[in-house]
């Protein structure tokens, strides 16, 4: 079973080689004439007067947390889906209970405006 | 392939050559996808598109590629240098790694795939999720407000649609009972007089629709190309990238486009099975059709607003995908008894 992963390992090494070649070439090929104005960040011609990294909208953190919650639970669906034909009604009802809990959480977030970006 | 397996050294040489060949084919396909897109978009907008370099402009991408590679690829001031260089590398790596498990065809008992894993599709999702890192790290390291905003927007968009994407395929796995892409593509039914392959779109049409929408969003393509919304964000996370580093992001985007098109044809349209058409050609035709669909979407729909995008992902696609899983599960078990 494990030997089916050997081609994958070789392929990963080849891809890493390709990435390494591309990154190296990006430094080797092409001219290098740095200039103060050229190296400044491009913000549509306006000279940046404040640092780029500043406080961000809390919505992004909220979305990330919701993703963790729902995606980790979505992972449970995969092995269950593969084995559903063997699990029959028992497996289906077990999962429906789980999905019910998931949907309650979804409805709660929805009602509290967790998905609104206005 | 049993003959080759008997000779261990010869076997591994063949394997490595096949892998390099696959990379070459994917790279070439990427270049011609760009050409195809430019010509098709041109025709949609009633202009000829590239037609100067080579016959029908076919050498346009070679010319553009050489030009871009020899452009200066500088690192802007005050960037996080390591992350800045690493981010496009992650993008390219993630895009190419997915091809380790994507089967291209089965023709005269010769298999055109690299690894035959029983968790195939799971691996594709795992590596294509790395794309989020490429985008958000590229935006973060660029020391540019627009890059940062574009990167964050993109990260939120990618993770929001990833759930819909993952859940849209669960009915497919339930029907086939396997995560191996070869099994899903070669799904056959025995319905009374009919005995043979069946495209799974007939059994999970809603799953296909959700997959298609989520896949367009996952590859940052129009009408979901918010991370690169020129009018408001310049080039988003791409703003500060130039030369070969820009090429790497661009390459990754188009490889991802081909990957999701290939997955769509494998998961919902029976992969390389198409009546009497030779398998590899049939697969190629299906992928090209999906690529055209992508370009068609780009030429037809205006870009969505960000709140509309998030609303569609969380309030429409996610509940629909969960409902699809429940309904398919109940029907499947009820039919099976």
Describe this structure in words.
The complex is a heterodimer of chains A (118) and B (337). Chain A is mostly helical and 118 residues long. Chain A has a single domain (2-111), classed as NADH:ubiquinone/plastoquinone oxidoreductase, chain 3 (Methane Monooxygenase Hydroxylase, Chain G, domain 1). Chain A has helices at residues 6-28, 36-39, 58-111. Chain B has 337 residues and is mainly alpha-helical. Helix content of chain B is 66%, strand content 4%. Chain B has helices at 2-5, 8-44, 60-69, 81-97, 120-129, 131-141, 145-168, 170-176, 181-185, 205-218, 230-233, 243-268, 279-300, 306-336; strands at residues 106-107, 110-111, 188-191, 194-197. The model of chain B has no long low-confidence stretch (mean pLDDT 83). Chains A and B meet through helix 1, helix 2 and helix 3 of A and helix 2, helix 4, helix 7, helix 8 and helix 12 of B.
Secondary-structure map:
The complex is a heterodimer of chains A (118) and B (337).
Chain A lengths: L5 H23 L7 H4 L18 H54 L7
Chain B lengths: L1 H4 L2 H37 L15 H10 L11 H17 L8 E2 L2 E2 L8 H10 L1 H11 L3 H24 L1 H7 L4 H5 L2 E4 L2 E4 L7 H14 L11 H4 L9 H26 L10 H22 L5 H31 L1
Antiparallel strand pairs in B: 1-2, 3-4
Task: Kindly list the characteristics that best describe this protein.
heterodimer; A: 118 residues; mainly alpha; Methane Monooxygenase Hydroxylase, Chain G, domain 1; 3 helices; flat; B: 337 residues; 2 domains; two-stranded antiparallel ribbon; two-stranded antiparallel sheet; 14 helices; 4 strands; 66% helix; 4% strand; globular
Q: Over all CA atoms, what is the radius of gyration of chain A? A: 25 Å
Helical/strand content category of chain B: mainly alpha
Low-confidence stretches of chain A: none
Named CATH architecture of chain A: Up-down Bundle
Report the end-to-end length of chain A measured between terminal Cα atoms: 51 Å
Task: Report the biggest beta sheet of chain A as strand number plus sense, adding barrel if it closes.
Answer: none
Largest sheet of chain B: 2 strands, antiparallel
For the largest interface, the chains and their residue counts are: A-B, 67 and 78 residues
Structural class assignment of chain A: mainly alpha
Number of helices of chain B: 14
- Beta percentage of chain B is under 5%
Strand order, sheet with most strands of chain B? 1-2
- Overall mean pLDDT of chain A: 83
Total strand segments of chain A: 0
Helix content of chain A: 55-70%
Strand content of chain A: under 5%
**Overall residue-averaged pLDDT value of chain B:** 83
What is the N-to-C order of secondary-structure elements of chain B (H for helix, E for strand)?
HHHHEEHHHHHEEHHHHH
Q: What is the molecular shape of chain B?
A: globular
């Amino acid at each position: 079973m494990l030997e089916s992963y050997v081609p994958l390992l070789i392929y990963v090494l080849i891809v890493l080689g390709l990435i390494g070649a591309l990154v190296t070439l990006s430094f080797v090929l092409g001219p290098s004439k740095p200039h103060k104005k050229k190296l400044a960040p491009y913000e549509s011609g306006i000279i940046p007067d404040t640092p780029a990294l500043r406080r961000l909208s809390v919505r992004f953190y909220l979305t990330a947390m919701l993703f963790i919650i729902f995606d980790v639970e979505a992972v449970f669906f995969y092995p269950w889906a593969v084995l559903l034909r063997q699990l029959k009604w028992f497996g289906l009802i077990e999962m429906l209970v789980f999905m019910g809990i998931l949907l309650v959480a979804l409805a709660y977030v929805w009602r509290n405006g967790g998905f609104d970006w206005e | 392939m049993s003959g080759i397996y008997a000779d261990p050294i010869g076997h591994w040489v063949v394997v490595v050559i096949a892998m390099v060949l696959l990379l070459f084919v994917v790279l070439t396909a990427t270049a011609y996808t760009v050409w195809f897109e430019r010509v098709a978009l041109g025709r949609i907008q009633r202009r000829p598109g590239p037609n100067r370099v080579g016959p029908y402009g076919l050498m346009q991408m070679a010319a553009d590629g050489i030009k871009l590679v020899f452009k200066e690829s500088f690192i802007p001031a005050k960037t996080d240098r390591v992350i800045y260089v690493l981010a496009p590398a992650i993008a390219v790596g993630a895009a190419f790694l997915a091809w380790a498990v994507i089967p291209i065809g089965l023709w005269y008992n010769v298999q055109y795939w690299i690894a035959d894993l029983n968790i195939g599709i799971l691996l594709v999702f795992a590596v294509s999720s790395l794309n989020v890192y490429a985008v958000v790290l590229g935006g973060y390291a660029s020391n540019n407000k627009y890059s940062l905003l574009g990167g964050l927007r993109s990260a939120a968009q990618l993770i929001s649609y990833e759930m819909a994407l993952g859940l849209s395929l669960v009915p497919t796995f339930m029907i086939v009972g396997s995560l191996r892409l070869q099994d899903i593509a070669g799904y056959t039914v025995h319905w009374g007089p009919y005995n043979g392959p069946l495209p799974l779109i007939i059994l999970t049409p809603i799953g296909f629709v959700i997959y298609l929408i989520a896949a367009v969003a996952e590859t940052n393509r129009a009408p979901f190309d918010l991370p690169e919304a020129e009018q408001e964000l310049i080039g988003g996370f791409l703003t500060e990238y130039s030369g070969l580093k820009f090429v790497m992001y661009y390459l990754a985007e188009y490889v991802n486009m081909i990957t999701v098109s290939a997955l769509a044809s494998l998961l919902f349209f029976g992969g390389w099975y198409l009546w009497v058409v030779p398998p590899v050609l049939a697969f190629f035709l299906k992928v090209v059709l999906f690529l055209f669909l992508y370009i068609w979407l780009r030429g037809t729909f205006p870009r969505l607003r960000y709140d509309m995008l998030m609303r569609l992902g969380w309030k429409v696609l996610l509940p629909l995908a969960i409902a699809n899983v429940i309904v398919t599960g109940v029907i499947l078990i009820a039919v099976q008894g």
